[in-house]
Amino acid sequence: MWFAKLLDKQEGMFVNPKTSRTYLHILIMAAFIWLVGCEAAPSTFAPKGVAAAQISRLWWIMFGVGTAVYLVVMGLMLLGLFRSSTRLPFALNGRRLVVVGGLIIPLIILIVIYGFTLTTLSALGPEENQGPLTIEVIGHQWWWEVRYPDQQITTANEIHIPVGQPVTLKLTSDDVIHSFWVPELHGKSDMIPGRINNFWLQADEPGEYWGLCAEFCGTQHAKMLFVVVAKPQEQFDQWLAQQQQPAAAPTTDLTQQGLDVFIEADCGRCHTISGTDATGDFGPDLTHFASRLTLGAGAVRNSQGALAGWVVDPHGVKPGNLMPSSDVSGTELQALLAYLESLE
């Protein structure tokens, strides 16, 4: 292969052609693994919203212009290296080449890019994209509190929105600086303690769009995820109505025992479950906990086994998080799991 032959010519780099081909195969396998690993990750190259499409368009314009400039510069360099004469085949020599190639053309390119950038920034402004629905998002170490103030709903690590219309977001932080980012729907916006930043989202297609914190915020920054769930208007209205209901009351002896365990273990000091004595506001609201997709802000999927591990040893799932370990017995744990899984 041409790459292997090229490497063979580098003195002292490889011992023999067989060794060079081995390195080449390793590089190819590493690239393949890297690409496979990125397949399910949210990508700015696959926009699913108006804002993300605008940002992607600007990126491709800059990439295209940058590529053209690179090719021209490399072509001139090769022309200078391999031509026997130092004269160029066109009337741009000496000072004229410096003025045109080093001043006029770059100035034109910068003006064009600047114009596209201003147009994109104007289109992304929150003032021009106010929606009828307002959602408050508060960053915590290391989870997301989500409030629908007009509907009096509080949830965590999930933002449900209707498809095809802008939604107004009010972003802030309760502790350190975080950064709100949903790559497939919009750019980034900082979340600063004591300050509210206005932002907006719009999804053009139903689906689940993963978001993350884009500002290092401590030990579990990498596991501070959330999901935006975009639904048709009718399904979104149904979700709102369901979330406005109080927590499901225990209907069996096992779930009643689970509620008792929850209260006696002082879980209610940190968590709220509407309609019960649990009114804490330090951790996520658990009123409709069972309807959520993940635990620990995207640390693991919400399943019975993962929930048991989270309750008994949350630091084994997400080291450094602020939830203490539990010492409930096996019988109490089964009852607690049954109750939490009933909170649809």
3D structure, described in words:
- With 344 residues, the protein is of the alpha+beta class.
- The chain has nine helices and twelve strands.
- The chain folds into four domains: 2-37, no CATH class; 50-124; 128-243, Cupredoxins -  blue copper proteins (Immunoglobulin-like, Sandwich), CATH 2.60.40; 253-340, Cupredoxins -  blue copper proteins (Immunoglobulin-like, Sandwich), CATH 2.60.40.
- It is 40% helix and 17% strand.
- The chain has a five-stranded mixed β-sheet, with no helix packed on it. Strands 4-10-9-6-7 form a five-stranded mixed β-sheet. A two-stranded antiparallel ribbon has the order 11-12.
- Strand 6 and strand 7 (188-191) form a beta hairpin.
- Helix 1 crosses helix 2 (17-37), helix 3 runs antiparallel to helix 4 and helix 6 packs across helix 9 (330-340).
- The N and C termini lie far apart (59 Å).
Unreliable stretches (pLDDT < 50, length at least 5) are 1-15
CATH topology of the largest domain: Immunoglobulin-like
Which descriptor suits the 3D outline?
elongated
Largest sheet: 5 strands, mixed
- Secondary structure: helix percent: 40-55%
Strand content: 15-25%
User: Any idea how many domains?
Assistant: 4
What would you say the CATH architecture of the largest domain is?
A: Sandwich
The Cα radius of gyration reads 28 Å
End-to-end gap: 59 Å
Strand order of the largest sheet: 3-2-1-5-8
Average pLDDT rating: 84
Helical/strand content category: alpha+beta
Total strands: the figure is 12
- The CATH superfamily of the largest domain is known as Cupredoxins -  blue copper proteins
The ordered string of helix (H) and strand (E) elements is HHHHEEEEEEEEEEHHEEHHH
The total count of helices amounts to 9
CATH classification class of the largest domain: Mainly Beta
